[in-house]
C-alpha cells in the first residue's frame, strides 16, 4: 500500500459552551492516499464539513477548537503548525471548494483576479505572469474564452460556470489535495454531471487526491474510490466503495442506502392507480398558458417568457410531478395556478371556473388549494408556535367551530406524524424535517382539494426526504388529495407521482405516466436529464449526455 | 460601458424634481410670517413707503403671478434681487458658495478618513476591548450636537492650544484650509460615527462571510482577506448612507458656519431668514436642493463603479 498523503488520527473537535464543552468530532481517524478520491457522506450536522475545515484549521467559530488527535500531511503535523505555515498549506497544498459558488466568490472582484490572487501570493509571480497563469487555469476548468472571461464578474455566469471558477481558484496554487464540500448540491443534474466529470478529469491530469463531501450516495458510487460514513461526529464506517455499498456493516449505512431514491423499480411500493370516471372534470385545466415577465428599466424594455404555450390537465386525485432544471418555469407555472402571478395569455380553470374571471373564483381557489414551500424554516412564522399557526389558519378558514379548533390542530399533527407535544413548539426548536411536517399540516388545515409542493424536500437530508415523500404518499391515498409535486430530483418524482411533466425553457417537452417517461423517454432533453442522475450502482456509469442529445434538446426548445 | 448609460438620461429625470423644488421653496418662503418691506424699512416707515417697496419687488402681486415671474427670471438665470444686500441673488450666492462647498467636501473626505480605519479596527477586533471602546465613543459622538462640539473644539485647539484660527475664512488656500479644519472636524465627527457604525457592521458580517472563508481557504493572509475582499464589499452600503445623509450634512453646515463665522451659504441663509429676504432664502434653498440631487447622482455613479452587479 502507498504511504498515506494525509493521515488523520483520533481527531477531536470540541465546542466550548459556557461552563462545559460539547464534542462535535469524536476521535475521527482517516487516511487519504495520493490520487485517491474519498467520499465523505452523512446527514447535515454529522460533522462532515467540520472535519474538512479542521484539516486546514479554518474552524467556523472561535468557540471551536481541536482538542486532541493529529493531522499529518506527508509526515508534517498540521494541528500544531504555526499560522504562517498554515497559510502555505491552505491553497498551496490543500485546496477547497464549497457548495454555494455564488456566495463564496467575491461579487465585486473579477473572476480572473480571484484566481491570480492566490498565484501571486503563493508563487510570488508578478501581475502579468499571474494573469497568464490564471488564464491558463480558466481554460483548464472549461471556460471557452478564458482571456476575455478573466475580466468578467461572478454574477455574469451561470451556477455551473461559477463552480468552475471556484474550482479554478482552488487549483490556482497547485494543491495536492482538493476538498470539495457538496460541490454540486446547488446545481441542476446535467450541470452536476459536467462538474463531476471536470473534477475527475482534473484529478486524472494532476494526480490530485480528492475528499468529496456529499449527501448523495449516487455521486459517491459514481466517482469515489473509498467511502467514509459519518454520523453525529463519529466515523461509523470506512471502506472500498463496492464492498461498502454491497455489504454495509453499520445499520446507519444500510438506512442511508435504503433511502437513496434511485433504487430499481421493483422495490417500490406499488402506486395506486385511481380510475377516473369517464367524463370526469379535470380539477385544474390549463390551456395555452403564457407568462411573460418584463425586464429592463424605463428606457430599454425586454421580456422573458417564463412559461410558454403550456396546456395541462390535472384530474382529481391525481399526483403529477413537474420536473426540469432551474429556470425551466416549474415554479412560475405553480404560482400561476394559484393566481399569484399575472397571466399573459391563456386560461387556467380550477374546478371548472376560470380563475381570471373574478375575485370570488380566486377566493374559492385559495380556500381549496394550499402550497408547501422549499425552505421549511422561512415558510413558518418564527414567532408562532405550531399550535397557534394551525389555529390561525382554521380561524380564518371558518369551516369549523372555534371550540373544536384545538382538537382539530391535534388531529392535523397526527396526520403528518408529529406528536401533539409539537403544538407548543416554535420552528426554531425543530429540525428541518419536523418543520416541513408542520408546513404540510398547515397546508392540510385548509382541507384542500389541491396541494402544490414546490421543491419541498430539496432542502432536507436523504433519510428525511424519504420520510416526507412517504408521508405525501399516505396522505394522497387516505384523503383523496390532488398533488402537484415540483422537484428537480427525478428519482423522487418517479417514486411518488403517477404522471410526470418535463419542462424545459418554459415549455412542456414531454408528459406521460412516470414509468413510461423514465424508462422510455421520447424527448432528447428528458433522456439527457435522466442520464445525468448519478446511480447508486457503481457499475451503471454516469452516462455523458452526448453533445448531440443536448444540442437536439436545445434545438427543439428553440 | 452600458452600465453607465444612466449618466446620460438620468439628468432628464432631474427636470420634474427641479420643478417640484421650485414650487416648494416658493410656497414655503411665503408661509414665513412677517413682511419683508416692513423689516427693510424699520418700524417707523410710512404705509406709502412700504407700498412702494412692495411694488418695487413685486410683493403686491398675486402669488401665482409672483411664481410666474420667479420662473421666468429663473429661466434667464436670475433669482431676483436681495432686499437686504441690494444685489442680484445669484451673484450674492456666487460670492458665498466657495466656503460652503469646501466645508462639505472637506467634511466628507474627513468623515471617510476617520470612519474607515475606525470601523476596520473595531471589526477586526470584534467583541474585544478596542471594539467596545469605539462603540461607546461613537455612541457619544452621535449624541453630541454639532454646535456644542464646535465650541469645545474652539476652546481646545484655538483658545487653549492656539494652533488653529478661532473663526472666519482666509484669502490664500493654506489660510482657507487652516480655517476649515475645525468646522469640518465638527461636522465629520458626527457624520463619521454614523458612517463607522454602518461600516463596522458590514465588515463584521464580511469577515464571517463565505467570501472571506473562501479567500482564507486559498491561503490568503487576514490582511488581504480584509482589505481586498471585506472592505470593497462593505463600501457600497456606506456610500449610500453617505448620500442619504447629505441633506443632514448640508443642514449641519448652517449651524457650523454660524458657530465658526464662516462666510458661506449657511450663514447667508440664516441672515436671510431673519430679515425675510425672500429672494435670497429661495435662491439658497434652490441651490441646496440642487446640490442634494447632484450629490445623490454622484453617489449612484460611485455605487455603479464599486459594485459590478448594480444596474441603474
From TrEMBL, chain A:
Topology with regard to the membrane? Peripheral membrane protein
Subcellular location, record wording: Cell inner membrane
Primary location class = membrane
Q: Does the keyword Lipoprotein apply?
A: no
Q: Name the InterPro entries on file.
A: AAA+_ATPase, ABC_Ni/Peptide_Import, ABC_transporter-like_ATP-bd, ABC_transporter-like_CS, Oligopep_ABC_C, P-loop_NTPase
Provide the alphabetized UniProt keywords. Answer: ATP-binding, Cell inner membrane, Cell membrane, Membrane, Nucleotide-binding, Translocase, Transport
Asked whether the UniProt record includes Cell membrane among its keywords, one would answer yes
The GO annotation for biological process reads: peptide transport; transmembrane transport
- Annotated CDD domains: ABC_NikE_OppD_transporters (cd03257)
Gene3D superfamilies noted in UniProt = P-loop containing nucleotide triphosphate hydrolases
Question: Which PANTHER family does the UniProt entry name for this protein?
Answer: ATPASE AAA-TYPE CORE DOMAIN-CONTAINING PROTEIN, OLIGOPEPTIDE TRANSPORT ATP-BINDING PROTEIN APPD
Protein name according to UniProt: ABC transporter ATP-binding protein
UniProtKB/TrEMBL annotation, chain B:
Indicate the principal place this protein occupies in or around the cell: membrane
- Cite the InterPro entries for this sequence: BPD_transp_1_N, MetI-like, MetI-like_sf
Q: Which GO terms describe its cellular component?
A: plasma membrane
One GO-annotated biological process of the protein: transmembrane transport
Q: Does the keyword Cell membrane apply?
A: yes
Q: Which Pfam families match?
A: BPD_transp_1, BPD_transp_1_N
The regions listed as transmembrane in this protein's record are 12-32, 100-121, 133-157, 238-260, 280-306
Question: Domain ABC transmembrane type-1, which positions?
Answer: 97-299
Stored Gene3D superfamilies: MetI-like (1.10.3720.10)
* Lipid bilayer topology: Multi-pass membrane protein
What does the UniProt entry say about where the protein is found?
A: Cell membrane
Write out the entry's keywords from A to Z: Cell membrane, Membrane, Transmembrane, Transmembrane helix, Transport
PROSITE patterns listed in its UniProt record: ABC_TM1
Annotated family = Belongs to the binding-protein-dependent transport system permease family.
Q: What is this protein called?
A: ABC transporter permease
- This chain's source organism reads Mesorhizobium waimense
Amino acid at each position: 500500500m502507498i504511504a498515506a498523503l494525509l493521515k488523520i488520527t483520533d481527531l477531536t473537535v470540541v465546542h466550548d459552551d459556557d461552563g462545559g464543552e460539547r464534542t462535535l468530532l469524536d476521535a475521527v481517524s482517516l487516511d487519504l492516499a495520493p490520487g485517491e478520491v474519498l467520499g465523505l457522506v452523512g446527514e447535515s450536522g454529522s460533522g462532515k464539513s467540520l472535519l474538512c475545515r479542521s484539516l486546514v484549521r479554518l474552524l467556523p467559530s472561535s468557540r471551536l477548537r481541536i482538542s486532541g488527535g493529529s493531522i499529518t500531511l506527508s509526515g508534517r503535523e498540521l494541528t500544531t503548525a504555526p499560522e504562517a505555515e498554515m497559510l502555505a498549506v491552505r491553497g498551496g497544498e490543500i485546496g477547497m471548494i464549497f457548495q454555494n459558488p455564488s456566495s463564496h466568490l467575491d461579487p465585486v472582484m473579477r473572476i480572473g483576479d480571484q484566481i491570480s490572487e492566490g498565484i501571486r501570493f503563493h508563487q510570488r509571480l508578478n501581475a502579468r505572469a499571474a494573469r497568464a497563469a490564471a488564464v491558463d487555469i480558466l481554460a483548464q476548468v472549461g471556460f471557452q474564452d478564458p482571456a476575455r472571461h478573466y475580466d468578467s464578474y461572478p454574477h455574469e455566469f451561470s451556477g455551473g460556470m461559477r463552480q468552475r471558477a471556484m474550482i479554478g481558484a482552488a487549483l490556482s496554487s497547485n494543491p495536492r489535495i482538493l476538498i470539495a464540500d457538496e460541490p454540486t448540491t446547488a446545481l441542476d443534474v446535467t450541470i452536476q454531471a459536467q462538474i463531476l466529470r471536470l473534477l475527475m478529469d482534473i484529478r486524472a491530469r494532476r494526480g490530485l487526491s480528492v475528499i468529496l463531501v456529499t449527501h448523495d450516495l449516487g455521486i459517491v458510487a459514481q466517482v469515489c474510490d473509498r467511502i467514509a460514513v459519518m454520523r453525529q461526529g463519529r466515523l461509523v464506517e470506512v471502506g472500498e466503495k463496492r464492498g461498502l455499498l454491497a455489504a454495509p456493516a453499520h445499520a446507519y449505512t444500510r438506512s442511508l442506502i435504503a433511502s437513496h431514491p434511485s433504487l430499481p423499480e421493483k422495490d417500490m411500493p406499488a402506486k395506486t392507480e385511481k380510475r377516473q370516471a369517464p367524463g370526469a372534470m379535470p380539477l385544474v385545466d390549463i390551456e395555452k398558458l403564457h407568462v411573460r415577465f418584463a425586464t429592463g428599466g424605463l428606457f430599454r424594455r425586454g421580456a422573458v417568457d417564463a412559461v410558454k404555450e403550456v396546456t395541462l390537465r390535472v384530474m382529481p386525485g391525481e399526483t403529477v410531478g413537474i420536473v426540469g432544471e432551474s429556470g425551466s418555469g416549474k415554479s412560475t407555472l405553480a404560482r400561476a395556478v394559484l393566481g399569484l402571478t399575472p397571466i399573459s395569455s391563456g386560461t387556467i380553470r380550477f374546478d371548472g371556473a376560470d380563475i381570471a374571471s373574478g375575485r370570488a373564483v380566486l377566493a374559492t381557489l385559495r380556500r381549496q388549494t394550499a402550497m408547501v414551500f422549499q425552505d421549511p424554516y422561512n415558510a413558518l412564522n418564527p414567532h408562532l408556535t405550531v399550535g397557534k399557526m394551525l389555529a390561525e389558519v382554521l380561524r380564518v378558514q371558518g369551516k369549523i367551530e372555534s371550540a373544536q379548533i384545538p382538537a382539530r390542530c391535534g388531529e392535523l399533527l397526527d396526520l403528518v406524524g408529529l406528536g401533539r407535544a409539537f403544538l407548543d413548539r416554535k420552528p426554531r426548536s425543530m429540525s428541518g424535517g419536523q418543520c416541513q411536517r408542520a408546513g404540510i399540516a398547515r397546508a392540510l388545515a385548509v382541507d384542500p382539494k389541491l396541494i402544490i409542493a414546490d421543491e419541498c424536500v430539496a432542502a432536507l437530508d436523504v433519510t428525511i426526504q424519504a420520510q416526507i415523500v412517504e408521508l405525501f404518499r399516505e396522505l394522497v391515498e387516505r384523503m383523496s388529495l390532488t398533488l402537484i409535486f415540483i422537484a428537480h430530483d427525478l428519482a423522487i418524482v418517479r417514486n411518488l407521482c403517477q404522471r410526470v411533466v418535463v419542462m424545459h425553457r418554459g415549455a412542456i417537452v414531454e408528459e406521460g405516466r412516470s414509468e413510461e417517461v423514465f424508462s422510455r423517454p421520447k424527448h432528447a432533453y428528458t433522456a439527457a436529464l435522466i442520464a445525468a442522475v448519478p446511480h447508486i450502482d457503481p457499475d451503471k456509469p454516469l452516462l455523458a449526455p452526448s453533445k448531440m442529445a443536448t444540442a437536439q434538446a436545445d434545438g427543439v426548445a428553440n | 460601458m452600458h452600465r453607465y448609460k444612466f449618466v446620460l438620461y438620468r439628468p432628464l429625470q432631474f427636470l420634474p424634481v427641479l420643478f417640484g423644488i421650485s414650487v416648494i421653496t416658493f410656497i414655503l418662503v411665503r408661509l414665513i410670517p412677517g413682511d419683508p418691506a416692513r423689516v427693510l424699512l424699520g418700524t417707523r416707515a410710512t404705509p406709502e413707503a412700504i407700498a412702494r417697496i412692495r411694488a418695487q419687488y413685486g410683493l403686491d402681486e398675486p402669488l401665482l403671478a409672483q411664481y410666474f415671474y420667479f420662473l421666468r427670471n429663473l429661466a434667464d438665470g436670475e433669482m431676483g434681487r436681495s432686499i437686504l444686500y441690494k444685489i442680484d441673488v445669484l451673484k450674492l450666492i456666487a460670492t458665498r458658495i466657495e466656503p460652503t462647498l469646501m466645508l462639505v467636501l472637506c467634511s466628507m473626505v474627513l468623515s471617510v478618513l476617520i470612519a474607515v480605519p475606525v470601523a476596520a479596527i473595531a471589526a477586526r477586533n470584534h467583541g474585544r476591548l478596542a471594539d467596545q471602546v469605539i462603540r461607546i465613543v461613537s455612541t457619544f459622538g452621535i449624541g453630541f450636537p454639532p454646535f456644542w462640539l464646535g465650541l469645545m473644539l474652539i476652546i481646545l485647539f484655538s483658545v487653549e492650544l492656539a494652533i488653529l484660527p478661532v473663526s472666519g475664512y482666509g484669502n490664500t488656500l493654506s489660510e482657507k484650509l487652516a480655517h476649515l479644519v475645525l468646522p469640518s472636524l465638527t461636522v465629520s465627527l458626527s457624520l463619521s460615527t454614523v458612517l463607522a457604525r454602518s461600516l463596522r457592521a458590514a465588515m463584521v458580517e464580511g469577515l464571517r462571510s463565505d467570501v472571506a472563508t473562501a479567500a482564507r481557504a486559498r491561503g490568503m493572509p487576514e490582511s488581504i482577506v480584509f482589505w481586498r475582499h471585506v472592505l470593497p464589499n462593505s463600501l457600497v452600503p456606506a456610500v449610500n448612507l453617505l448620500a442619504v445623509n447629505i441633506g443632514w450634512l448640508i443642514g449641519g453646515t448652517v449651524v457650523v458656519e454660524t458657530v465658526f463665522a464662516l462666510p458661506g451659504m449657511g450663514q447667508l441663509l440664516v441672515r436671510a431668514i431673519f430679515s425675510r429676504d425672500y429672494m435670497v432664502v429661495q435662491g439658497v434653498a434652490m441651490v441646496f436642493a440642487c446640490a442634494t440631487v447632484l450629490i445623490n447622482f454622484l453617489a449612484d455613479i460611485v455605487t455603479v463603479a464599486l459594485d459590478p452587479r448594480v444596474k441603474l
